[in-house]
Each structure stands twice: as C-alpha cells, then as structure tokens.
C-alpha cells in the first residue's frame, strides 16, 4: 500500500521513508544512545579540559584555585623545558615507530599474500603479537631485557652489548630497546590492513602488465602501490595518532625514564595530573597536544592528497 | 521471496576471498616468486616474533632460579602462586566481566547507530559523522582527569561500571563506522522486499540483514572485547580497590615491585594472554574479510 502511494508521486526520494512506514524520529532514536554516551563521556570532558586550561586547579592546593587566564599557556611555551623535550621525543617516537612499522608491515603483507606451502600458519604466526596488550608487551620485554636472565645476557655472551645494566635503564640503549618492543607488537597491524587491501587488487591488472613485459618491481610501483595508497595514508595517520596518544607501553616499560629520556607528551601530562595533581596545567598541556595533533593530521591529509586520484 | 533473495545474497560475502588456484591450473606468471624470497625473510621475521613468546613461556614453566633454556623440569608453581597469592583469579573475573559487558554494550549501541547512519538521511547526520571521526583524535589518556571527576560525581569510582562505560565510549565511534559500512554492503532492496512481504522494519532487519552482518559483528565485538581486556589506564585510574582491579593492572603491579618475581610475572602474562589467543584463533578467518569490507574501504 505504502509502495503504491510512493509510485503515485513522481519524485523518487521520499519513497524510502514512506515505504518503511516508520516515524521520522527513528534515526534519532537509533543514534540517541551513542550520541548521549559520547556527549557525556567525550564531549563534556573535552569542554571541561578547555575550561580547566584557563584555571589554576590543584586539589592539593585549593587556596590557589581560580581563573588564571592564559598563564598556563604562557608557562608552557616560555618556562617549561620539559614540555619541549617531551614534544621532541613524541615526534621522534611516532615518526620512527610508524615508519618502521609501515615498512615491515608492507613487506610482510606482500610476502604472506603469495601462495606458498604453510601460508595459513605463516599468517597466523606473523599476526600473533597484534592482539598482545601494551602491558603484556612490557612484561615480555622486561623478561627479555633483564640483565641477569634476559636474552640480552646471551647477546652479551656473543659480544653484543655489555653485561650488568639492563637496556631499559641505560640512557643510550633505552630508545632502541623501547622501539623494538613496540615494533614487535605494532608491525602486524599494518601487515593485516595492507594484506586486506592487497586482496582487492584485480589480478587482471597484473596479467596485463605481464603481457606487456613489466618486471615485478615495475608492477609493484605502478599497480600495487597506487592501489594501496589510500589504505596506507589512512592507516599511517590512525597509527600515528594512536602511537602519540598511547601511554600503556612506555608507562609500564620504562615509566618515562631513565632520567625522563622516554617521556612522551601524553605521559608527561598523565604524570602532571596523576602524580602532581596539577589539573589546570595538565589541562593546558592537553589542549596544546590536541591542537598539535589536529593540525598535523590536517596537514598530513592535505599533503598526501588522500582520496585524490583513484576515486 | 525473502528467504530466496536472502539465500541468493548470502554467498556473496564468501566470494570476497577467491578460491586459491587449483594445482592443475597453470600458475599465472606474476605469482612465480622464487621460494627462498618468501621463506628466508619470513623465517627471519618469525624468529623475532616467536622468541619473546618462547621466553615468557620458559620463565612461566621453569622453576624459580633455574637458568635452563628449556622449560624442563616443568612446574606450575608460578601459576598457582600468581592465581591465589597475587589475586589473579579475582583480576581474571573482573577482566572477563569488563570485557563481556563492553562487548555487549558496544555492539548493541553501535548496531543501532550504524543502522541509522547506513539507511537514513537525517538532518544532523553529517555533523554526527564528523563528530565520530573527530573523536578518533581525542586521546582517552588525556581525558583521565575530567573522566575521573565525572565518575566520582556518579559515585562510580571503584565500580567496574566506570571502566565498562569508559571502554565502551572509546570503542563506539570506530565500531559504529565499521558497522554502518557493513550494513551499506547489504542491498537495501532485500529489506524492502521483506517489508512487501509484511515484515515490519525490526523483523526485516532481524531476518534479512542481521545474518549477513555476522562476520562484521564478530570482528567488531572481538575488537571491543580484546581492547577492553588489554586496556590498562582506565582501570588503573578508576579502580583503587585491589578487589576490583583487572589483569593489566595486576601485571603492572608485578612489574613495578622492587624486586620483580620474574616467574610470577611470566605466569601472569600468560594468564593475560590466554583469552586473547582464544578469541584471536576464533576470529582469524573473519578478520581479513571483516577488515576489507569495512575498515579501509569507505
């Protein structure tokens, strides 16, 4: 019946709604639970962070609480060397992690996309650290880096590194040590995403290229890589944001040390709010981190021409 | 009519993964990569991947103080100790509760929202989509303080509910985008056919759409579970009572002790990994399909 009514009216668009015979409120009802949860537990906290960033707010020193104007921001940019150190370290951390994860992930995806004996097992094993948590990764690598009983002792036996100090407590080795631990867990993420996208490349393209006598390297550059472009841009961006924000691994593996050597900006913020209870200042730092993140993401999407030519 | 259409459509997702070429067929030329170029780098990488797993297994199974490189004689003392003395039994229960509740809430709420996004045009849709995407940039770790204050206000500090809500909220945006993409892949005409046959919207959704969403829902639900199982910071912040803590917090406590009991840490780590390994083995075959259907391709 409803169908007949829709047919009688020439313009097509209203047909959908009419055919369903459901109230127009339905979509709003459906998104309401999600919207309410996100308003209450994401939007409201974000707004309150902006609000606190203009306040002196420290529950342990209530006599100083009150409106502070832009004092917190002035302090960040003019009077806080730790902020700049952590910002530089964050950039270094994200850049090295995402770059290496992409490189290894891409290589692995290309390999396990081939047909070979034992492929299913190979894939399962390659992907396995993907689901391991940051804390568990830390636990595993604490065992591996232990100076007495860890794998590093056996490496020292073979002449790599020295006995005595754990790689995690030496300022000259802590960065590569933490990078390797996070790589171990991070590479499968890229391998999975890129493999998924590789499976949608049309095989005809390769066959045509083969007929034209293109080498496998040429095929990679001219067929595979352009096809993967959007997936790579999106996954590197998501991963970069994630690597920047995620504090689980460094918090538990190095605690930001030794000597603040591995403190990222979010870790610094967590310490400022959790240990020092300086909520106002931590909120200002959060605001700055948020703006930096948003700005970098936009620049990245613009520069990489996301969704540009193959749509 | 409905059932016929539904069964006709059902094989479609399965076709995403093409059947491997049979042995009788000639291999296409582009597939002829020398075997060593596959096995050599793969083996090198697998050594890197598997040694850490072996190492934690070794520490968990060999007696304290042993330096043997094989877990023999084998002992389960570390597991017993960690499960009872270090209350990993309690932590395990709490983590299961948080994980399952997060899975259920995330899937239901995201399913409703995802359906609205996939099937309706409504006034705030664009704004809502934008909000979902932007929320991806909001780091949960940086909202710890305001979230703590909200939960304190709601008197939910030290209750697992606070962690469940926080985990769900941060899982929601991506889950909803994924599910709405899965729903878009189900032809609308299937639903319309069901309405013609007299189903209301709810029934048409349940009978026609829901069965086709299975791989996607399994992927989304498993992510929600694994993510909340693994996540550490919310539980660390919102649960101060030792009775209420979760496995990752327990692991962190073991690690930050003055003299770390390596055997207990390893056993605790394995307890933390078991459910994730089970889920992972279970969803493996859906993982790639689920991803390619929803995650990267818009």
UniProtKB/TrEMBL annotation, chain A:
<dbReference type="InterPro" id="IPR035906">
    <property type="entry name" value="MetI-like_sf"/>
</dbReference>
<keyword id="KW-0472">Membrane</keyword>
<feature type="transmembrane region" description="Helical">
    <location>
        <begin position="93"/>
        <end position="112"/>
    </location>
</feature>
<feature type="transmembrane region" description="Helical">
    <location>
        <begin position="124"/>
        <end position="144"/>
    </location>
</feature>
<keyword id="KW-0813">Transport</keyword>
<protein>
    <submittedName>
        <fullName>Sugar ABC transporter permease</fullName>
    </submittedName>
</protein>
<dbReference type="InterPro" id="IPR000515">
    <property type="entry name" value="MetI-like"/>
</dbReference>
<feature type="transmembrane region" description="Helical">
    <location>
        <begin position="279"/>
        <end position="301"/>
    </location>
</feature>
<feature type="domain" description="ABC transmembrane type-1">
    <location>
        <begin position="87"/>
        <end position="300"/>
    </location>
</feature>
<dbReference type="Pfam" id="PF00528">
    <property type="entry name" value="BPD_transp_1"/>
</dbReference>
<keyword id="KW-0812">Transmembrane</keyword>
<comment type="similarity">
    <text>Belongs to the binding-protein-dependent transport system permease family.</text>
</comment>
<keyword id="KW-1133">Transmembrane helix</keyword>
<feature type="transmembrane region" description="Helical">
    <location>
        <begin position="26"/>
        <end position="54"/>
    </location>
</feature>
<keyword id="KW-1003">Cell membrane</keyword>
<dbReference type="GO" id="GO:0055085">
    <property type="term" value="P:transmembrane transport"/>
</dbReference>
<feature type="region of interest" description="Disordered">
    <location>
        <begin position="1"/>
        <end position="20"/>
    </location>
</feature>
<dbReference type="GO" id="GO:0005886">
    <property type="term" value="C:plasma membrane"/>
</dbReference>
From TrEMBL, chain B:
<feature type="transmembrane region" description="Helical">
    <location>
        <begin position="262"/>
        <end position="283"/>
    </location>
</feature>
<keyword id="KW-1133">Transmembrane helix</keyword>
<keyword id="KW-0472">Membrane</keyword>
<keyword id="KW-0812">Transmembrane</keyword>
<dbReference type="InterPro" id="IPR000515">
    <property type="entry name" value="MetI-like"/>
</dbReference>
<dbReference type="GO" id="GO:0005886">
    <property type="term" value="C:plasma membrane"/>
</dbReference>
<feature type="transmembrane region" description="Helical">
    <location>
        <begin position="160"/>
        <end position="183"/>
    </location>
</feature>
<feature type="region of interest" description="Disordered">
    <location>
        <begin position="1"/>
        <end position="25"/>
    </location>
</feature>
<feature type="transmembrane region" description="Helical">
    <location>
        <begin position="96"/>
        <end position="118"/>
    </location>
</feature>
<dbReference type="InterPro" id="IPR035906">
    <property type="entry name" value="MetI-like_sf"/>
</dbReference>
<keyword id="KW-0813">Transport</keyword>
<dbReference type="GO" id="GO:0055085">
    <property type="term" value="P:transmembrane transport"/>
</dbReference>
<protein>
    <submittedName>
        <fullName>Carbohydrate ABC transporter permease</fullName>
    </submittedName>
</protein>
<feature type="transmembrane region" description="Helical">
    <location>
        <begin position="204"/>
        <end position="229"/>
    </location>
</feature>
<dbReference type="Pfam" id="PF00528">
    <property type="entry name" value="BPD_transp_1"/>
</dbReference>
<feature type="transmembrane region" description="Helical">
    <location>
        <begin position="36"/>
        <end position="61"/>
    </location>
</feature>
<keyword id="KW-1003">Cell membrane</keyword>
<feature type="transmembrane region" description="Helical">
    <location>
        <begin position="130"/>
        <end position="148"/>
    </location>
</feature>
<feature type="domain" description="ABC transmembrane type-1">
    <location>
        <begin position="92"/>
        <end position="283"/>
    </location>
</feature>
<comment type="similarity">
    <text>Belongs to the binding-protein-dependent transport system permease family.</text>
</comment>
<dbReference type="InterPro" id="IPR050901">
    <property type="entry name" value="BP-dep_ABC_trans_perm"/>
</dbReference>
């Amino acid at each position: 019946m409803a169908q007949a009514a829709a047919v009688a009216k020439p313009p097509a668009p209203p047909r959908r709604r009419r055919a369903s015979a459901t109230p127009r409120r339905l979509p709003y009802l459906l998104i309401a639970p999600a919207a309410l949860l996100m308003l209450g537990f994401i939007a409201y906290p974000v707004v309150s962070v902006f609000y606190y960033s203009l306040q002196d707010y420290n529950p342990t020193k209530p006599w100083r609480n009150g409106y502070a104007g832009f004092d917190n921001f002035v302090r960040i940019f003019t009077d806080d060397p730790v902020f700049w150190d952590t910002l530089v370290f964050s950039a270094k951390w994200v850049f090295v992690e995402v770059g290496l994860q992409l490189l290894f992930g891409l290589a692995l995806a290309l390999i396990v996309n081939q047909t070979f004996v034992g492929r299913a097992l190979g894939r399962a094993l390659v992907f396995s650290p993907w689901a391991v948590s940051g804390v568990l990764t830390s636990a595993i690598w604490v065992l591996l880096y232990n100076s007495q009983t860890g794998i590093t002792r056996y490496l020292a036996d073979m002449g790599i590194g020295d006995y005595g100090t754990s790689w995690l407590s030496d300022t000259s080795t802590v960065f590569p040590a933490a990078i390797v631990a996070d790589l171990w867990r991070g590479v499968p993420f890229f391998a999975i995403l890129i493999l998924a996208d590789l499976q949608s490349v049309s095989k005809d393209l390769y066959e045509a290229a083969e007929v034209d006598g293109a080498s496998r390297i040429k095929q990679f550059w001219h067929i595979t890589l352009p096809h993967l472009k959007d997936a790579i841009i999106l996954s590197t961006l998501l991963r970069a944001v994630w690597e920047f924000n995620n504090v689980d691994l460094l918090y538990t593996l190095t605690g930001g040390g030794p000597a603040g050597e591995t403190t990222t900006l979010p870790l610094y913020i967590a310490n400022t709010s959790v240990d020092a209870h300086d909520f106002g200042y931590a909120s200002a730092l959060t605001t700055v981190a948020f703006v930096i993140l948003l700005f970098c993401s936009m620049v990245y999407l613009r520069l990489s021409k996301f969704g540009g030519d193959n749509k | 009519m409905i059932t016929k259409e539904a069964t006709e459509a059902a094989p479609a997702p399965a076709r995403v993964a093409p059947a491997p070429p049979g042995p009788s067929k000639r291999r296409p030329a582009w597939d002829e990569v020398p075997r060593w170029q596959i096995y050599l780098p793969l083996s090198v990488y697998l050594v890197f991947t598997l040694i850490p797993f072996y190492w934690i297994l070794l520490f968990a199974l060999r007696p304290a103080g042993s330096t043997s490189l094989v877990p023999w004689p084998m002992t389960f003392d570390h597991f017993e100790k960690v499960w009872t003395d270090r209350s990993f039994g309690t932590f395990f229960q709490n983590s299961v509760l948080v994980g399952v509740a997060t899975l259920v809430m995330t899937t239901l709420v995201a399913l409703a929202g995802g359906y609205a996004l996939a099937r309706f045009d409504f006034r705030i849709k664009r704004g809502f989509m934008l909000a979902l995407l932007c929320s991806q940039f909001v780091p949960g770790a940086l909202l710890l303080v305001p979230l703590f204050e909200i939960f304190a206000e709601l008197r939910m500090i030290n209750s697992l509910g606070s962690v469940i809500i926080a985990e769900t909220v941060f899982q929601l945006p991506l889950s909803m985008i994924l599910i709405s993409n899965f729903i878009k892949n189900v032809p609308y005409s299937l639903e319309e056919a069901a309405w013609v046959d007299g189903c209301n919207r709810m029934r048409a959704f349940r009978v026609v759409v829901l069965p086709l969403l299975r791989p996607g829902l399994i992927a989304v639900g498993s992510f929600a579970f694994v993510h909340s199982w693994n996540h550490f910071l919310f539980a660390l912040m919102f649960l101060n009572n030792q009775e209420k803590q979760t496995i990752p917090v327990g692991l962190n406590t073991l690690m930050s002790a003055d003299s770390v009991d390596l055997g207990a840490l390893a056993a605790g780590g394995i307890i933390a990994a078991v459910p994730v390994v089970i889920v992972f083995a279970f969803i493996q075959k859906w993982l790639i399909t689920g991803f390619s259907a929803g995650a990267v391709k818009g």
